[in-house]
Design a protein that fits this description.
By secondary structure, this protein is α/β, with parallel strands linked by helices. It has one domain: 3-Layer(aba) Sandwich (Rossmann fold). The chain is built from 8 helices and 7 strands, in the order αααβαβαββαβααββ. Strands 3-2-1-4-5-7-6 form a 7-stranded mixed sheet, with helices on both faces. The protein starts with a helix and ends in a 6-residue tail after the last strand. The N terminus is likely disordered. Pfam families: Methyltransf_25.
């Protein structure tokens, strides 16, 4: 983990790939299952795309929802090698997600836990690439957690982590981009709308609610306009 933290994002995840599924960084199955459950009313879908697929955890969602080919894209060769081993039936593409190499081929695109590896200024490029990759009427979906209350330990832990990462990236090269507080929902909505999507959210009911009654997680649904829109 220490070697990873002092590497680039790509090299760090190449190093972590053999053990990634055993770390806290892998999206938990309960979040994947909650996402699939929330997406069921919008399907079935044809072809599916997992953006920043890592070792292929998102296939747990796409496999349930998509009737045709499913594809994962990532820039880490190590992560893709693990994904191919776990899901040989899928197609795996190595590419920079800031310049996705797809035309309008997919009906559903998902991403899990990857947006913290993108600086806010990079989001427009990836959202534009997902927009191009979707067929008219296609859907881009991803879960977001509720922000922790300012009085909680989690709030200050995440703030402290982000501050440490900013100091690390200010004094060490190459940078390792991994932040927890750079993707507020209002900013994601704005960037998605600027890319051309119509954006809504739905609660991830399977994750439950907080003490104040608000959902613990929401699913962002970004729709590419269809021919009748």
């Amino acid at each position: 983990m220490a070697v990873q933290a002092l590497s680039s994002v790509e090299r760090g995840y190449d190093l972590l790939a053999p053990k990634f599924d055993e770390t806290p960084f892998r999206t938990p199955d309960r979040v994947l299952d909650a996402t699939a459950e929330a997406l069921l009313p919008y399907g079935p879908f044809g072809q599916g795309l997992d953006v920043c697929c890592g070792t292929g955890a998102g296939m747990r969602v796409l496999g349930r929802l998509c009737e045709d080919r499913v594809t994962g894209v990532d820039f880490s060769a190590g992560m893709l090698a693990r994904a191919r081993q776990a899901h040989p039936e899928a197609e795996w593409v190595r590419a920079d997600v800031r310049a996705l190499p797809f035309g309008a081929a997919f009906d559903l695109a998902v991403t899990f836990g990857a947006l913290g590896h993108l600086l806010p200024r990079e989001r427009p490029a990836i959202f534009a690439g997902v927009y191009r990759a979707l067929r008219p009427g296609g859907l881009f979906a991803f879960p977001v957690g509720a922000p922790p209350p300012i009085a909680s330990r989690l709030y200050w832990a995440l703030l402290g982590f982000d501050l440490v990462m900013r100091v690390r990236n200010a004094v060490w090269r190459p940078p390792f981009v991994m932040y927890y507080r750079t993707c507020p929902l209002h900013a994601l909505r704005s960037d998605l709308a600027a890319a051309g999507f119509s954006v809504t959210t739905v609660p991830l009911a399977a994750l439950g609610r907080r003490e104040d009654g608000s959902p613990r997680g929401r699913l962002v649904l970004a729709r590419k306009p269809g021919p009748r829109d």
